[in-house]
Design goal:
The protein is mostly helical. The protein is built from four helices and no strands.
């Protein structure tokens, strides 16, 4: 019984310490706030053009392929909305993650390997 109480007290103590560290870090500004903002700008904003270009061309191909198959059922009018929803919900985040990840990998390579 004492081992159980000891484990329980240690678990709740750990949760309390973690909570206090989280609250402390939320209250105080991080030391590297400027660097985080700079990385968001470099990796996010500067990758927007490439990500949008990939999404537009992927959307065009997706719409063309789905319109051909939807024509069999007389549902050509739904090719645009279906393509837009598919790109927005499923394919857009995946493509963006791949492109931003590739850009991060390129930026993190040493200068002699570029």
């Amino acid at each position: 019984m004492t081992a159980y109480l000891r484990r329980t007290a240690m678990w709740y103590g750990g949760v309390g310490l973690l909570s206090s560290q989280v609250l402390k870090n939320l209250a105080l500004p991080p030391a590297y706030f400027r660097l985080v903002i700079q990385e968001i700008e470099v990796m996010g904003v500067r990758s927007l053009g490439v990500a949008l270009t990939a999404a537009v061309f992927t959307g065009m191909v997706f719409a063309l392929q789905s319109a051909v198959n939807m024509a069999r059922f007389g549902a050509e009018a739904y090719a645009g909305p279906v393509s837009a929803l598919a790109i927005l919900r499923e394919l857009g985040p995946v493509l963006t993650a791949i492109l931003v990840g590739a850009r991060w990998r390129q930026a993190s390579r040493p200068s002699w390997a570029r």
